[in-house]
UniProtKB/TrEMBL annotation:
Gene source species: Actinotalea lenta
Membrane-spanning ranges: 6-26, 38-58, 64-86, 93-116, 153-170, 200-219, 277-295
Keyword ATP-binding belongs to the record: no
Name by which UniProt lists this protein: ABC transporter permease
Compartments it resides in: Cell membrane
Keywords, ordered alphabetically: Cell membrane, Membrane, Transmembrane, Transmembrane helix
PANTHER family, A to Z: ABC TRANSPORTER PERMEASE PROTEIN, SUGAR ABC TRANSPORTER INTEGRAL MEMBRANE PROTEIN-RELATED
Pfam family, one: BPD_transp_2
Primary residence: membrane
Length: 314
């Protein structure tokens, strides 16, 4: 009971929102590629590159906004590389996604060595944090007030991205074309849709949002960059969008579950539980979610196969 009292607090809810934001931003970005029938597992690398760039550029310029914009640009650059390799050079998108992740991991460590002389973490002189947004009287509302007060603008952007993504996917020409390409690419091409250009748009959106997700990760609390600080959050974002069937609202719900698991794991460590077991919590939930999704897809595939008319003889 004491452990539950330590975990179920407004401070925990505050941390949950903070941890959900980078996962949600990357997952919403990845849902655009998934809608175009591309599983972008390079979200991890795009997020990691965004995290480093946000700190490096933000601390150099003394502007958190410039840091966020630079992080978005870094994510876009890796997304463009991903698009060139998969859409123009016809490489397998899974292999390219792994390559993007390895490239980001190695490049950030190399830049840490070259720029700061340290392979592990940026020095205290290269530090910058995102400003917090006070909500005034709203902060006095029980439970809700302390939870949403003094969050960063990127937390608000993460949750705002859900209705914006829904609007873009279901109420615009681009969204209709992207979903058509994902459903049946040959038919979409026959209908006159520029398939490669539409897919490129989806990939670039994923890179943009993943780079911003990295900025939230590195600038929200620590204000510094640590090697491989994403720690699999990009893969958790992939799990969230898969669990949510790449639909914005469902993806948000999945991201909240995974972010909550991460926050609760931190609180369990503070409460004295084995830290390694606590750190496993979000990843165990991710595996369970993917298994459930796999079972759902298998059931849907079998139902579709049984419903299909049998070929007639002769």
């Amino acid at each position: 009971m004491d452990v539950l009292q330590q975990i179920l607090t407004t401070a925990t809810l505050f941390v949950i929102l903070m941890k959900v934001a980078p996962i949600l931003l990357a997952a919403i970005g990845g849902s655009f590629t998934q809608q175009g029938n591309i599983l972008n597992i390079g979200l991890e690398g795009m997020m990691l590159m965004g995290a480093f760039t946000a700190i490096a550029v933000g601390s150099a310029t003394g502007s958190a906004l410039v840091g966020v914009l630079a992080a978005a640009g870094a994510g876009l650059a890796l997304a463009l590389l991903f698009a060139l390799a998969t859409l123009w050079w016809k490489a397998d998108f899974i292999v390219v996604g792994i390559g993007v992740n390895l490239l980001a991991a190695g490049l950030t460590i190399f830049l840490l060595l070259v720029v700061y002389g340290s392979p592990g973490v940026t020095p205290p002189t290269a530090s910058i944090r995102l400003p917090r947004i006070p909500l005034g009287p709203v902060a006095d509302i029980p439970v809700i007030g302390p939870t949403i007060n003094n969050q960063t603008a990127l937390v608000w952007l993460a949750f705002l991205s859900v209705p914006l993504a829904s609007l873009l996917l279901y109420r615009t020409r681009f969204g209709v074309h992207l979903r058509a390409v994902g459903e049946d690419e040959p038919a979409a091409e026959a209908a006159g849709i520029a398939v490669r250009r539409v897919k490129l748009g989806g990939v670039l959106i994923s890179g943009l949002l993943s780079g911003i997700a990295g900025a939230q990760l590195s600038m929200a609390t620590l204000g510094s960059f640590t090697a491989n600080m994403t720690s699999g959050r990009g893969f958790i974002a992939v799990a969230a969008l898969t669990f949510g069937l790449a639909r914005p609202l469902r993806t948000m719900i999945a991201a909240v579950i995974f972010g909550a698991a991460d926050a609760v794991a931190d609180q369990l460590g503070i409460a004295g539980f084995n830290s390694n077991l606590a750190l496993m919590t979000p990843y165990v939930i991710t595996i369970i979610a993917l298994v459930l999704v796999g079972i759902r897809f298998r059931g849907a595939w079998r139902a579709r196969a049984s419903a299909a008319p049998a070929p007639q003889a002769g």
